[in-house]
Amino acid sequence: MQVFICPFCGPRDETEFRFAVEAGHSRPEPATEVSDTDWAGYLYKNRSPKGAALEIWLHVTCGEYFVMTRDTVTRHIDGSEPLPGVKP
């Protein structure tokens, strides 16, 4: 098991968290004008870089989303912080 650090609750078991999206992966807008191809690209085409990555995660227990810096190769977590504008 891995321990993730929720900026609101502190260290917790990884089973309490759900991956949301790569940070910076912007939803295409306006929704009424997005083609099926662009929507599929948003949903299924991710950069998935090797090494350091910024990711948005959900801590299911407290219901808060946050940014985690994680190495996708070693799984080492470099830190986590609330989304901009959200206070812990």
Automatic annotation (TrEMBL):
Under the heading InterPro entries, the entry gives: SoxD, SoxD_sf
A Pfam family found in this protein is: SoxD
What protein name is recorded for this chain?
Sarcosine oxidase subunit delta
Q: What is the lineage of its organism?
A: Bacteria, Pseudomonadati, Pseudomonadota, Alphaproteobacteria, Rhodobacterales
